[in-house]
Amino acid sequence: MNFTAAYRIFIALFMLIVTVGLGMTLNDFTSVVYVFVPLLLMLGASFIPFFKARKLRLVLFAAPIVILYSVGFYPWLTNYQEVAVSSSTSTLDFIIIPAWATLYGAGFVVLHEIGLGVARAFNWAK
Q1: Residue 85's pLDDT band (boundaries 50, 70, 90)?
Q2: Cα end-to-end span (Å), the chain
Q3: Which of 40, 85, 118, 123 has a C-alpha 20 to 30 A away from that of 112?
Q4: Tens digit of pLDDT for each residue in 23-62?
Q5: What's phi and psi for 27, nearest 5 deg?
Q6: Which residues are within 8 A (CB) of 57 and not within 5 positions of it... i.e. 6 or more apart?
Q7: Cα dihedral sign for 107, 17, 70, 73?
Q8: What is d(CA 59, CA 38) in angstroms, rounded to the nearest whole number?
Q9: Is there a contact between 23 and 79 (Cβ–Cβ < 8 Å)?
């Protein structure tokens, strides 16, 4: 099994864990979109030749999304009703956390490519 296949399986299992963990209690269509769009972007990135060319690009793109979902966003989602009552910005947080995770992933890929360019410019790369 190559890396791309393993990556796709990992993302599919991660999506399954998120779905089962939430118990599909998200009734609002927009909330489902905000939960699954970054995960679908991670899965879709594995089909783009730019990401397939280097394994590290996939990892750098996916790492912030997986970390923010598992550490910050996912526990927050499971207590969404309590958070919504106690916080005036809960809906805004619901939109911002996945968006920032996706932007961090894209930013890490950009920084990686800049680093590769600098390494090539100074002949630090092989």
Answers
A1: low
A2: 27
A3: 40
A4: 655 666 666 777 788 888 888 888 888 888 888 888 888 8
A5: -90, -25
A6: 50, 51, 109, 112
A7: positive
A8: 14
A9: no
CA-to-CA distance for 13 and 33, rounded, in angstroms? Answer: 18
Helix (H, G, I), strand (E, B) or coil at 96: helix
pTM for the model stands at: 0.71
Q: Return the C-alpha torsion angle 58, 103, 26, 40, nearest 10.
A: -30
Cα–Cα separations (whole angstroms), residue 83 to 6, 108, 122 = 35, 30, 51
Tokens of 113: 């490519």
Question: Residue 65's CB: how many other CB atoms inside 10 A?
Answer: 22
How would you label 1-23 residue by residue, b for 16+ Cβ within 10 Å and e otherwise? eeeeeebeeebeebbeebeeebe
CA distances from 32 to 1, 18, 57 (A): 31, 11, 26
Which pLDDT value is given to residue 97? 75
For residues 87-101, average pLDDT: 69
